[in-house]
Amino acid sequence: MLIYFLLDKxxxxxxxxxxxxxxxxxxxxxxxQLKKYYPNQVADNNYSYRTKAIFAFQEIEDVDVxxxxxxxxxxxxxxxxxxxxxxxxxxxYLDTVHFFRPKLYSQDVYHEILIDYLDYxxxxx
Length: 125
Prior knowledge:
By secondary structure, the chain is of the alpha+beta class. The chain has a single domain (about 1-125), classed as Aminopeptidase (3-Layer(aba) Sandwich). The chain is about 25% helix and about 40% strand. It is built from 3 helices and 4 strands. It has a 4-stranded antiparallel β-sheet, with helices on one face. It is elongated, with a radius of gyration of 18 Å. The relative contact order is 0.19.
């Protein structure tokens, strides 16, 4: 977990906050052209997924400064064939900014946030 990583590495300068800034359910419409190319694999006309925007902030000089963000689409077991009984995510965008302090641990913190997110999705389906 990120908190244990930060404490382990003596990154105690300031508070780190992970926030889900947006989480909404969406519908993906299957276009006729896709059905034409994959007639035996595409069953429904559409399927649902959840889109999320997750940001990481560090308090620097009393201001929350963003240093990491992920935009992801989460698909659950309700997806139609060929994705039945699968839970998976698509990370459509991931970005970092070099504001994390101490800079020595920034890459490790980015990795830890991503690993924690993937673990969260795995645990919660």
